[in-house]
Amino acid sequence: MKKRYLIYGSIFILSTTMLSACESTNVSNNTNSVTLVSPSSTTPATATASPEPSEDIKTMDDAEKEMAAALIKTASIFLEKGDNITEDLREQAFKAITDSTKWISEANRNEFIELANYIRADDRKGVQKAYQELTKIYGEPSPTNSTVSPPSPSPKPPVEQPITLSGKGDQASEFFELHSGFAVINATSTGDSNFIVHMLDESGQNEKSLINEIGTYKGKSFVMIPSDGKYMLNVKSEGSWTAKITQTVPANIKSAPTKLTGKGNDVVFVNLQAKLTKFSFKHVGESNFIVHVNDSISLVNEIGNYSGSTAKTVNSDGTYIFSVKADGQWSINIE
Description:
Elements: H1 14-20, E1 35-36, H2 60-81, H3 87-100, H4 106-120, H5 124-138, E2 163-168, E3 171-172, E4 176-178, E5 181-189, E6 194-201, E7 208-214, E8 217-225, E9 229-236, E10 240-246, E11 254-255, E12 258-263, E13 266-272, E14 276-284, E15 288-293, E16 297-303, E17 306-314, E18 318-325, E19 329-334
Parallel strand pairs: 1-17, 11-13
Antiparallel strand pairs: 2-10, 3-9, 4-9, 5-8, 5-10, 6-7, 6-9, 12-19, 13-18, 14-17, 14-19, 15-16, 15-18
Helix pairs in contact: 1-2, 1-3, 2-5, 3-4, 4-5
């Protein structure tokens, strides 16, 4: 399989973090605190339940092995600490495991879904059965570490040629190849009416909404790609349009503390440090102002002019992806 840079989503090993908290005599159930996890890491920096990741994860096979090892470790912790795990933690573990299965090959995906259901139902015999089946496939999990230092993204990732598409009016594009990880779509449209773009995989089952705007458009959008394969764009437009798809990390990435500025929809990569971080926002516009980190954590979701701030705990050093949806000028000050 061709090597390439792979970015994980930010919630994949939430279950390991929650369940390993049971190893402490005082278990915190405060769900108001949201931590940010670098998409370049398989686990939060403070997680104690997952194995030490390799220094450079570059293939989907490696990604699946890392993910499977962490999820199997979740089952191990449940079997060891099950009496101390609350219903709320089991429910959160269920969601985290099922969300993570998109990184598992289809042949083994049902095994992990069964594991998640057994944990949710507090079925120790079921968890034991699933654990035994999964260790036959992936092997025993590594011993627990006190801390995990996630791999940093390569400062000079492989250069790949962008995929360039263009057309006029409503069109379904030809299929194109994408690697698992992430993709940034830089699109334009000259029409006066709706400009709507969806991405579909070869089966047509995995449809993702990329753009839904009215009038002339120029902007970027971000999407996670669950697996290597063929994809296509389904475009609705009354004018001419273009779309350039890239899967590489930019060469020049700002590091916090820093200020990001832009206009309209954009995708920005930023290096953050593991600490409590303040994010301040401004938007001058009439429509939605939405900011997500790593395609999952919502920092802002407002309409019209906006000025405000929030603080989030960044769990690990690494490169984070900010996707911005806006119709006007905006700024993000990261302290």
